[in-house]
Fold these 4 entries.
Entry 1:
Amino acid sequence: MGSVRIGLSQFFSIALLFELGTALVVNLGILSGKDAWVSILLGGLAGILVFLGYAYLYWKHPDLTFTGYTTKLLGKAIGVPVSIAYIVLYLNLAARDMRDGGTMLAMATMHHTPLFILSTLMILSSAYVLHKGIEVLTRTSLVFLMIVLLIGLFSTIMLMLSGSINLNRLLPVMETGIQPVLESVVRQSYMFPFGEMVCFTMLMPYLSNSRKGPWVIMGAMLTAALLLAYTMALNISVLGADIVERSPLPLMPAISKISISDFIQRVDIFVVMVLIIGVFFKMSVFFAAALIGISEVFKLPYRKMLYPAALIILLTSMVDARSFIEHLDEGGRLLYTVYPFFMIVVPAVLILVTAVKSHFSERRPD
Amino acid sequence: MNRNRRGIPVRRSLLLFSALLALMPLLTGCWDSVELNRRAIVSGVAIDRGETEADKYVLSFQVIVSEEISGEKARGIAPVALYTGRGRTMFEALANASRQTARFLSLGHVRVLVISEKFAREGIRDIMDVLERESDTRLTSLMFISKGQPAKDLMSTMTVFSKIPANDLVEKLETTSKQFGYNYRMEVDEVIRGIQIRGGGPTINGVQTTGDKENAGSNDNLKTIAPKAILRVTGLAAFKDDKLKGWLEGETALGTALLQNQVKEFPSLVEDREGGYIAFNVYQSTVKIAAKAKDPEHPLIIVNISQQAALKEGPSTLDYSDPEVIEGLSDRLTAETKNMIQLAVQEARRLGSDYIGFGEALRRENPRGWNRVKDHWEELFKTCEVKINADAVIRHTDMRGNSFQVNK
């Protein structure tokens, strides 16, 4: 894969931002009520286990992307269609994230701006960064990660000072046992956002250090799980599980409770910033993964398909659903019907094939 | 190929130009922007019950007239204006009110929401939905119930310390909550959480105007040294679910606020044996409500309260330098606190509403048991055993030891 090499810290930041992405502002894992944070932690651990599988594939084929070794392992006849399916998946995920982000912006602040305009601006900025190259995207992420973390720190301190946090709202932990938590892990939180890390299989060949790289990414996933669980616990301890459950963007009302002597207040604009940053990086990573896939499968230069792909994402996101409710419902069902196939089943088959092949190739010498 | 002076192909420069042209609309900024001079900032909203279903919601918006607050263009008119709209829903009433205003009603800075007692007795459930759903309004607006009068009156009373009556009301609440008592900040989301408590409800601050209500809305109200009409924070409205059940006053209200751990500071009086009273300032009280519920049908609720106080007024011949005397006084302070809490519990039981959070304590202790009893919690709440452990420390006697009456 070319001469581009991306450092570990950049990979850490892009993985962390990708994970936080939209997950930070939505009511993640809320199927398990006020134990959502437990379900996020468990989901994160499950996600890391799944990622170990991707890492194994990467270690066996450090110079190939996912589409690369799929074609190599399964042969052209099966490998190419599977690769194309993945490209479609990534384009679709990028489109879905853009729809998420656009609608949330429209709900939260920009009531009159047409969704199409919001989406166009977002995809244009994303396309511009990718036009500059993937290393630019990852370096940008380093800067924005700092901003997101600073906003998080600031909000936490302010919430504590304004006395809105009541830890009693998190109690009792797991009042109906562990079953609802596990159910929400299976239905939601191990796939979203942790299973989506599958798209990093397309980026990992750029890693500057192939031994340590996957571990750094897993470190980012763990950090993300902790931060997401913490954010969710914060939301619930400020608003109560009932309000969080009914809010599509619970971070927003939680942060809007910040009011210090009626002087520091209305800081919910920070959440909008976090939302835009998160959506931008999540979408861009999917977009990049799709582009790399396209350029590999169809042997095209990487930049050639940039704008057509952007157009596809834009249009997909527009025709995805008539309403946000429909969009969310669809997304919720995709999480436990379609995605597991791409994120677990296919990689599992590849791991099996790789393991068998390397087993036999090791035997051969004796 | 045609080239201009710099050597850029004409076609390319045309393309660049049109791209720049396409980007131009972005320079105007947000699609949604409303300039400040097109906004009317709403500082408070009063919600009254109309007579018929067709105008069920009567919303009065207290709008700030910015020129009158500060600025050279002041015309000497009232600093706020009140616009009223009616409708079958809150949203319709808002739309209706905007027919009268020249500017967009901007709800981002609403600090006070007052609901009339009449509406509160009927139920506030339907009011709350739009308040949390609408993205412009904020959860940190303070809620009040107007005691025994239309909420609109309270939005149209001129006040002394702030030109904007809503701000004055907020400041009044904060002053009283910091110094004397049982009223405390009650914000929109707290009311919603209160309504959602099984078997309980929220408690909301009461507010009323006293004095000459006729001329309360005129500048004349403030021309005398003693304002003719005064807006005052008073009482706690106790709810069962979303319906107002009764008003709590005095020690009962104080006990209730103590149980909700919302009291910052309050004066507490102890009767002196020689007659008269000794006054303490209780500057810290921490309450923890726990439950013992092996058998959820017969729970024991334990209220632990610890307080710190300072002697503020002790016109008596008692020897305050004697630790035993102070100990004795703190015992009586404890008894006083216990009494308040007992009054609060009794009143809550009389009203049949667990707004003091005993059910929540039981739920934290024994979640499975709670699930079994939550449907008939009202009955259990009335009969369950309550144990109050109070502890008070008198930290100091302020700037003097004994009273001068001792050395006479």
Note: The longest strand of chain A covers residues 259-260.
Entry 2:
Amino acid sequence: MACNSATCQSGGCYREDNGDRVDDPFPQPPPAVATESTQQPLSNGKNSDSAFCIKCKLKESMAAAFSSSSASAQVTGGGGGGGGASDSSRFCGDCFRSNLYGKFRLAVTSNALISPSDNVLVAFSGGPSSRVALQFVHEMQMKAQKNFDASRDRSLPVFGVGVAFIDESSSISIPAEKFSQAVEEMRLVVSNLAPPVKEFHVVSTESIYSSDSNNGRNRLKDLLNAVADVTGKEDLLVHLRMLALQKVALKNGYTKILLGTCTSRIACHVLEATVKGQGYSLAADIQYVDARWEIPVILPLRDCLAQELNIMCSLDSLKTVEVHNDHHSGINALITSFVKLLQEENPSRESTIVRTAGKLTPFHFNRMPEPDDCNMQLASQRRQKKYNLKPNESLPPESFCRICNSPLKKSDVKSYKLENQIMSAEDISNGCCTSCQFQILPKDISLLEHFYSLLPQQMVARGEYSCLGEDRWLREQIQDCLLSDTEDGT
Amino acid sequence: MEAEEVVAKPPKGRFCTICNQRRAALKRPKTLEQICRECFYAVFEEEIHGVIVDNQLFKPGERVAIGASGGKDSTVLAYVLSELNRRHNYGLDLFLLSVDEGITGYRDDSLETVKRNEIQYGLPLKVVSYKDLYGWTMDEIVKLIGLKNNCTFCGVFRRQALDRGATLLKVDKLVTGHNADDIAETVLLNILRGDIARLSRCTSITTGEDGPIPRCKPFKYTYEKEIVMYAYFKRLDYFSTECIYSPNAYRGFAREFIKDLERIRPRAILDIIKSGEDFRISTSTKMPEQGNCERCGYISSQKWCKACVLLEGLNRGLPKLGIGRSRGANNELSKNAKEAKGIDSIQSKQCGTLDF
């Protein structure tokens, strides 16, 4: 029922229990001296425990420790709401760190996100989320390396880690000097995260085109200019970013792509998708695993709030690099400010949004594809029993939007056959979801055909596969009863 | 009024894009097309006719009650429905059904509007009041519980009141003026508040088919702005003030957001509804089991219907009963009821004695 109280417990206004008791890798020892720990500073009528970490009750909570310094605004305000200590800052620094890392580790282990034979490419934007993702995956790798060095039989290999930064300077104007400085800072960050050594790739968006860079840059510029809608242009850039990541991962032998997408970002995405009519495909984008792509994409920071990640960066002085003002416009900007407003009014709003969306049924590609080696995966497979998602063999395969790769609702897809392998304007439209049709594809037919000619090969191929897929599937169903290879029976 | 901003003086020679004969007089909020008034009336009415036909909302010979508050949505609904009923021979018997919540200075004024509608559209009117049904007016309730959670009481009571009124009128169906903006707001609200069960039901155009009175929303795809525009140009008589007790409702957040969204991309409202319809929600999600209220017989998934629970709270001076995570409320009530069996409580009043 409607209410606007921050503490209301009616209906769906759940206040998130932030005392998530995750497997604590560093359990605090019981207080050695009982008397000292009972000395609690009284603070003007408030709960006398407020100065101490609510978890270990030994060290000072971060809110108390920083209350006098100017760093408090950074720690307690972080990326979230206004005044007042957040739940996170009622931990001490160590407990906070272990709690946050615990969330990361739980996500990785219970969803089998990273296996020992993997080579993981971390998508690094320079911002706090991807910085923490990089840090945590590095720590995990170091731990695996230590175990490897200490083990006698060296049976479990250590997974590899690489870092990729997508250079979007051809689409977003960034002063060249600022840009090269930022890249150097990132290179330094990555080189400091060794051993084990991590390769740093700087990939430009235009690299998705196989032709030489100049031609690619112009093609990219033309492609983006052909999109009239501001939000459509922004979203197209995001889709191209993923294509660039896929390309560099494939080229360099990576087996997984790791994104630092956090709860807050997902909450915004939920609303963005709802508002753009993408309710059907929403569930595909917000799970831990997204295996629609050639290289599966994993989101281990899915349960961490942006505010927590900001606090983590300032707590451990993790260097973040701002390449360009992440300036959203149009609908995406409206939603970002809306979620910020809601989060200020109720600090658990982002989590509630993600939890609601988490109840939507995922797709069959939202679990890790079965590897060849069955033995190692059994435990995690048991844990994935929640959604019994095998692709239903009695239905035609899912088809995907050419541009955003979102699964298309069967009733929205008009079945069509390619006439002589030439795409008509209608064919081009039909291969895209309704949202992309509206906000990305040009309305005018000749502009549409021109736009199609500018698309990178991966998007063109994706559409053609979808179109032929159903035909091929139908044929496979009846293959054993066909007497000839051609349709007319000759 | 809002509609005035949208009517811009077209440059000389700008014709309506639909008929190409008359001068364009307005920009259509849903599509931004520049059209004349006559064409606007036509597309507005015919789109609603299309929704009614495509979704098979009515059958010939049905008695249909229109939930009439005197506001723009229900006034336009009454006007358009009686017009389409005539024009396309739906064969419906239409009635106006109004609920008097007992809000001085708001409801008594809007009820006057409905009484005028009764005469203007020639539709028989029935008014049901909270006072008669429950023994409480909203004024009295707000005096007791304040301005938080009062919308909960009113909403629950109104739903039942409409059903009871519909039964008294012996109608087969109830129509309400919920428009596209309302439904989009509800979709957003349910996402924000974690209500996955409601999220799966809130985009249905017809609800309650398995209950006492099915209800439908012919305005599901009609923009609020267009309803205002229609009412303005047709000079329909309606009452346009916000309920005086509602300023704090959480829905306000969603409403503001949708207004901003509409400015950037008008079709987003319909896109939200489409997303709501397309959400993949497992049908095995626990849906409430349907039974009947022990106290009054109304449809309920718990021992007592929500209205009875709330009423009990009011009568016993426990305004929080039924608000919040009411794990124990129903159990507590039945326990206490058993204890107080023999005692006749003068204060406590039944929900109503109608058998369902």
Note: The mean pLDDT of chain A is 80.
Entry 3:
Amino acid sequence: MASVLGRYGRKWSLGCVSYHKNYLPRFSTVAHSAVPSEPIQQQQAGRSMNLYSAINQALHIALESDSRSYVFGEDVGFGGVFRCTTGLAERFGKHRVFNTPLCEQGIVGFAIGLAAMDNRAVAEIQFADYIFPAFDQIVNEAAKFRYRSGGQFNCGGLTIRAPYGAVGHGGHYHSQSPEAFFCHVPGIKVVIPRSPSQAKGLLLSSIRDQNPVVFFEPKWLYRLSVEEVPEHDYMLPLSEAEVIREGSDITLVGWGAQLSIMEQACIEAEKEGISCELIDLKTLIPWDKETVEASVSKTGRLLVSHEAPITGGFGAEISASIVERCFLRLEAPVSRVCGLDTPFPLVFEPFYMPNKNKILDAIRSTVNY
Amino acid sequence: MALSHLSSTRSNRLLRPLAAAASSLCRPISTSTEPLVIETSIPFTPHKCEPPSRSVETNPQELLTFFRDMATMRRMEIAADSLYKAKLIRGFCHLYDGQEAVCVGMEASINKKDCIITAYRDHCTFLGRGGTLLEIFSELMGRQGGCSKGKGGSMHFYKKESGFYGGHGIVGAQVPLGCGLAFAQKYNKDENATFALYGDGAANQGQLFEALNISALWDLPIILVCENNHYGMGTAEWRAAKSPSYYKRGDYVPGLKVDGMDVLAVKQACKFAKEHVLKNGPIILEMDTYRYHGHSMSDPGSTYRTRDEISGVRQERDPIERVRKLVLGHDLATEKELKDIEKEIRKEVDEAIAKAKESPMPEPSELFTNVYVKGFGTESFGADRKELRATLP
């Protein structure tokens, strides 16, 4: 082991670099706020950039700070189809940033093996719709490795990045939101950012987290979402939800691109006198039940919204858990505004999507229950 | 007028002197079915089998049909390019121009009872299987008149009557499906075969090897056709594959490497392959071809290859130019006639586009049709489980 470490020039161990100190590994599914979340806005001034640039920056930092980290996937060499990996191959070399053949199952299996040897393997699946050949590897290998080896082995260094979600014209195979399938698997984490500054911090946390993480990036926001992103290395805590809008009448929970739609609905509802509290879940498993519970205890109403089809979507888990915890406090049934129970359509996308008006209707009917 | 009428019969040999005299006025295109033997550009490279002969039997009518079909496909793809840029076609659009010889040559050697299944670069394959330009443009624009009722789009063309099983988005997924089709054909003692097409990128998928093993084990009449256009989207084949000899990848399954830009070579290879599989089990055909456009309309196609390379292939190996040279060289038609054919095709394509634009968008209720079998009666819940509740038809 020592010889392997020596070969890579410098010793690598979690916690020896100063900015890792704030980050403690999580062992329970209950999120403790023992880790203070860095107030990123107060740190060094940022630069205005979009989502793919923020992710690109995060990958640059991850590869720079850890010489045993690798980025690979289909077409990542020239920058990737969404330009998330531009400049990486040139800067860090083809032996650390490389293209793989077209074989998702092979890519993820390979990444698991690489992670099992104490490396940070960042595998890219070109579109989340193509993650299914790799589903067996993620569910049966990655998620259960630590468990079945009694802690001897783990693939904690594994991070799988995939663009997910509708993009306006993606059709059946460039628009799916498969997060619910992965939320059903104990042993992995599922993280979804909502904006560039969030994405950078969450991706760095996911890469450095000691558990395998599936990181879904909302592809609609790659170019569309622009904000000030601090240039330094920072991490955002996983399994901590964030209240991004305070309110008192109803709690809305969402993640990823859907939040911007929900925010618009909240603003419209405000005009009608309904005060909405909006929560970004950020990590879907293990998810921050406490924050949502506290919010629903305050408002008494819950609405969950996601692009994936409603039946069996992650909204169902949130609904069931909150009903368990807040049954007597609830003023109305938990409302779910989600995609329809059909394959993701082509021309019918506007009908399928849970848009602002559907959410607004649901807010009104929940508040007036 | 009488002259042209006479010369369109089989006895044009007699009338040739007269026709030659009238060449400046109107020289009729040869529709003769007199056999013509033409050599393919390069010999076939075999793997564990005896290659077919380089000399391909054809006839003037067939060559002109090839020209017309390929020119139609080329024109159609270019029109689709403009429609995409005009945002009339949305979603993803993968164009086949440059590779026309593969589907045209294949069609020439098989019938409509043989099955073809391919990936998403399927516009021309669909046309070859008997699809109409109107169906194609309607489907591309998502209209009701399309072959999949506007619900599939560019990647999902199907034609049940002609044995065209589509049109698949997930790379490599169509090949094991092809094995199933072939098994059914064998079971029904059809004397037909299945052509499962995939690309050089898909050749690295695990399911390919599963399909090869299954088809060899059970002697299925399947021809696995690797359309090797040398780029798996942005990744060149030498960077994705240890062994770019895709025709040898079958190991125990015989293979044949074919110049995919030579329509006659493709025809010969497919004919040979069909005879082979009906007796001996699967075979791999590697079609060495090239696509001029990028992977899809979202890909400029120039970030991973040089423009010189693209124009080089266009000059040296273009399938339509090859047939044009053959036709002119064997004096089967004049330049003007060929240009007239192209003009006619352009007009046909424009008319089809105009007609397709008139086709309406699918009804909103179509969102819920064909999820399950008709009459199953389940409910699809809408946004909030209260407002929208549709019983699936």
Note: Confidence is low (pLDDT under 50) at residues 1-27 of chain B.
Entry 4:
Amino acid sequence: MNMLDGNALAGDLDDIFTVDVTTARFVCATCGHSGAMATLRLFGRTPASVARCPSCTEVVLCLVKADGRVFLDTRGIARLELPMSGA
Amino acid sequence: MTQAAVSRRLNWRIGTVTGIRAETPSIRTLVLDVPDWPGHLAGQHIDVRLTAPDGYQAQRSYSIGSAWSSPPGTVELTVQRLDDGEVSPYLTDTVEVGDQVELRGPVGGWFVWRETQTPPVLLIGGGSGVVPLMAMIRQRSLAKATQPFRLIYSVRTPEDVCYAQELRDRVRDEAGLDVRFVYTRKAPEGWAEPPKRIDAATLNTYGWPPEFMAETFVCGPTSFVETTADILIALGHDARRIRTERFGGK
Ligand SMILES: Cc1cc2nc3c(=O)[nH]c(=O)nc-3n(C[C@H](O)[C@H](O)[C@H](O)COP(=O)(O)OP(=O)(O)OC[C@H]3O[C@@H](n4cnc5c(N)ncnc54)[C@H](O)[C@@H]3O)c2cc1C
Ligand SMILES: [Zn+2]
């Protein structure tokens, strides 16, 4: 299994968001663990990746590209924390 | 969606190969000229996309090995060939000066070092995992920063050392930088230790003690990164000061 981590999602997430989401802190909806998005364990690669919590291994985020669209499933994230612009 | 929102999206750019350096028999550095390159931080990477004539695309991430930036607009990638790989043999064997490569970036703001970070820095790289760490060493030099830097670099054999001459020169010329090699298959003549994988004894002896509160960056094949991070934590290092980047593989 070719496992990577959330760093490798930076390009695909930058294509969707205006800020670098890999530096954001997530709170896992399953276990409450919190850490940088870059620390997620990443399985599969574009066009279909699944990022899991490093603590409980539950799915935190799925990113799928198909038919010219990108689908982002974030149900495993209870909260995201980012610095405000200008802060 | 408004035009502004559309135009803010990360665009794929075209880089032109302007130079190629053989680092080891299986590693090559590509110097790319990328128009309108916005600059980057040490440790960031780019995504490369190859498109076959039938439209099939393969995308991979490669760390930027160069510091930002001299001369402006150039980006250096250092790629290790995996013989059964889809993308790396193209970059190490096929691409020639003058060829164009589609890329996007710089991306990734977490596995980065800025010269404004004052603590000592411990860099631990396995194989091509040395690439973003080299960008940090080069950035330290460019910024004339004085934070102590130590690189622990795990390679199979002495012939697999990437940037070997540059590392020797920098250790000689740049105060506060040192390098310790770990050989996993074959050590040089007269090396005190038999070849071995990175272990607790190595990190205990050649890493810094946890009290130094070093900023620690670990990068390389996934199993190397996991083992190293586990050992550091077992040795008492603060997990919050350890940043990891997994390159894949077993
Ligand atoms: C953020 C990031 C930065 C990276 N930076 C660099 C870099 O600077 N230089 C560099 O050479 N590579 C780097 N990589 C790895 C690179 O993205 C590719 O995974 C690598 O070049 C292999 O691609 P491939 O298409 O040749 O092999 P694939 O066709 O993807 O894989 C071929 C076989 O090799 C295995 N494999 C895949 N990746 C690795 C690996 N890294 N080590 C060992 N076995 C592997 C696979 O499981 C498979 O069995 C980076 C990866 C990430 C996520
Ligand atoms: Zn969890």
Note: Chain B has two domains: 3-107, 121-246.
